[in-house]
Structure formats: C-alpha cells, structure tokens
C-alpha cells in the first residue's frame, strides 16, 4: 500500500479550540499499521496535523453510494470535476481551502466520501499507468476494504467487480467514475452549498488565503 496523501491531514485551527474531533495521527508507516484512535486532541498546538476518523457511519444513510450504472465513455480525465461549481473545483484542488471544507464535512460525518472523490480526481489525472495502478490499489485499500475506517458503503459484489476490473482491464481512467459521479451529484454539491453558508467558510476567508 502506498502512503496516504497529505490532504488526508487536517490542520486544527486554534480559533476552533472548543471543537472536539475523534482523530488518529498519520505516521511514516502504512496507514493500516499505524492507525490508533484518540479523543484527546492537543488543542494548544495549532500546528498539529490530524486525520479525521469516522465513527458510527450506520446512523447516516448519506454514506451509502449507489452507482448510477455503467458509463465508460469518458475521454477527459478531469471531466467529473468540470461538472461541479467553479468554486467547488477551487476548493477541491487547493490544499489550503480543502482543509476547511474537510472540517465542515467531518462535522457531518461524510469525510470518507469527500476524500475518496478527491483521490479519484488525482487518480484520473495521473498519466503514468504504473503510478495509476498504485493509486488504484491505495483507493481500494482505503475506501473499499471492509476493515478500513474510511470505507464508503458498497456491497461485496461491487467491491469484487472493481477488483476484477483492475485485474482484467488495468487501471483505466474511468475505473471509479460511477462512484465519484454518484458522490458529486448526491452529496458534494449539496455539502458545498451548506459550506458556503457556514462559519467555517467565513473562517477560511478570514485566513488571508487569497481571492476566492
């Protein structure tokens, strides 16, 4: 398994010191070997890099992703994100903005779907086949493995179908498209609408991150 990307890390803002998150820190070892949970966040350390952990996903049906059917005709690797609101594109692609959006999503217990979507965009923009294969394996381990804390809700049949497609067809650009499009259309668009009305969004703009 390759290491989890940097954007899985969340910078806790000292101005949000009253918030509590269930988190587990990233280490230099593989994520499956290094994860441990804690409820005690060091709120006096504003530079602590934390990865949001999810718990009790069964209470929130919005985690359940049902692909809208097979659509394997996509030509542009970035076409899925191009369908999104321009400002949503900016947030997804910008590390500093994404940190704040991820905090908003964590409060709504939908972090794994947003992280999965962003990793699929990275996967689709990778032109080297072997690197894309490694990214695909990482996505399957992080978001489809039954024991993963970031698992999106899929059936055994769907998981097996993805594994079979990777083995028989290789890391095609459209391998995860059905799931990514389902997340965009049924979740991300509506999350972003709420995010723009939230205090976290105002906080993001107050942090002098440039023109949004």
Automatic annotation (TrEMBL):
Domain (RGS) ranges? 87-205
Which Pfam families does UniProt cross-reference here? RGS (PF00615)
- InterPro entries named in the record: RGS, RGS_sf, RGS_subdomain_2
SUPFAM superfamilies reported in the protein's UniProt record: Regulator of G-protein signaling, RGS
Protein name per Swiss-Prot or TrEMBL: Sorting nexin
What high-level taxonomic lineage is stated for the organism?
Eukaryota, Discoba, Heterolobosea, Tetramitia, Eutetramitia
């Amino acid at each position: 398994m390759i290491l989890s990307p940097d954007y899985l890390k969340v910078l806790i803002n000292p101005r949000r010191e009253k918030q509590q998150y269930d988190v587990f820190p990233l280490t230099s070892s593989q994520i499956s070997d290094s994860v441990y949970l804690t409820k005690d966040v060091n709120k006096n350390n504003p530079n602590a890099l934390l990865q949001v952990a999810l718990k009790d996903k069964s209470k929130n049906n919005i985690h359940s992703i049902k692909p809208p059917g097979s659509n394997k005709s996509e030509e542009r690797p970035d076409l899925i994100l191009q369908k999104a609101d321009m400002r949503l594109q900016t947030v997804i692609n910008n590390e500093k903005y994404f940190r704040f959006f991820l905090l908003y999503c964590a409060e709504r217990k939908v972090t794994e779907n947003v992280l999965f979507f962003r990793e699929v965009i990275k996967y689709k923009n990778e032109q080297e086949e072997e690197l894309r294969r490694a990214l695909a394996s990482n996505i399957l381990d992080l978001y489809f493995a039954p024991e993963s804390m970031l698992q999106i809700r899929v059936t055994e049949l769907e998981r097996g179908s993805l594994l079979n497609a990777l083995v028989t067809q290789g890391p095609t650009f459209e391998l995860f498209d059905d799931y990514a499009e389902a997340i965009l259309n049924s979740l991300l668009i509506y999350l972003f609408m709420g995010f723009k009305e939230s205090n976290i969004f105002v906080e993001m703009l107050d942090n002098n991150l440039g023109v949004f």
